[in-house]
Amino acid sequence: MPELHRPETLAEACSLLASLDNPMVYGGGTAIQILLKQGILFADNFVDLSRIPRLREITVDHNGLIVGPMVTVRRMETDERVRATSPLAAAAYHHVANPRVRNTASVGGNIAHGDYRLDPPTALLVLDATIEAASTKGTRRIPVREFFVDFQQTALAPNEMVTAVCIPTQPTGSGRFVKYSSLSENDWPCASAAVLVADSGGRREVRIGLGALAPVPRHVSFDATGLSDQEAVDAAIAAVEPALDPIPDVRGSVAYKRRLGRVAVEDAVRSAWKDLADG
Ligand SMILES: Cc1cc2nc3c(=O)[nH]c(=O)nc-3n(C[C@H](O)[C@H](O)[C@H](O)COP(=O)(O)OP(=O)(O)OC[C@H]3O[C@@H](n4cnc5c(N)ncnc54)[C@H](O)[C@@H]3O)c2cc1C
Question: Ligand 1 centroid vs 231 CA: distance in angstroms?
């Protein structure tokens, strides 16, 4: 039976992770509990971060949001500061699972879970967010664009934990998050896309984050200055094509997911583009 540890400071949490046998950070537990029940997760010690106040805070500075890893997914969709500073991130967190999961799952656990189907990383990639990670060796920052290393594998070192997700203020323009599920509305995505059409000083850039369409969440971007809406959609579909490498499963075949990925990108780019045209 694993032992549960509940440190009250970050330093204590770091030293527990460095000294205990086979430790694992415990966030909201929504993924951990399922994996335990399935008998495919083995940890001797859980380090629960919920008693460390700083890890439950959302702060706003001149760069954007600094989100503690124990902030719930639900708070990310409802907090007015998140919705004002980064509406695209709020939209992606809003689409995670169902209210029961969102009320319990944490921002840190969501990203550290490293699943290729996660919704929030699509927006975090587009917004060029950064992960703050800490261990007894110190603190470092990892761009989200370098965080997802391979299938179910992140850039976190053993015994390192996420201590913040830093999300820059959303650039001027228009953002859209689109998710298609095959089994039920609240299910994991079959394909998802976060799109930002950044529009500043006459220059337009399209940034796209893809979820469930490759072994890791992926992103692409391109200069869209001077394009019509249809040209932007065509350029977006051409740009994502090399990034589409879906894993077939109960939610769809490779061909189906590739097709749905293109539809999600078209849908998101077209509606974000229209929002800009409508002012
Ligand atoms: C029914 C169901 C449906 C779901 N559907 C979706 C969906 O549609 N879209 C989606 O995006 N997600 C979905 N999820 C996944 C859900 O988002 C994750 O389960 C959740 O975000 C994990 O967060 P948690 O805090 O519960 O993590 P935990 O279960 O506590 O931990 C998950 C992993 O992260 C590690 N971890 C936790 N916190 C940290 C930290 N601070 N630093 C380092 N490592 C840490 C743990 O050690 C563990 O390996 C679904 C989950 C369920 C149960």
Answer: 38
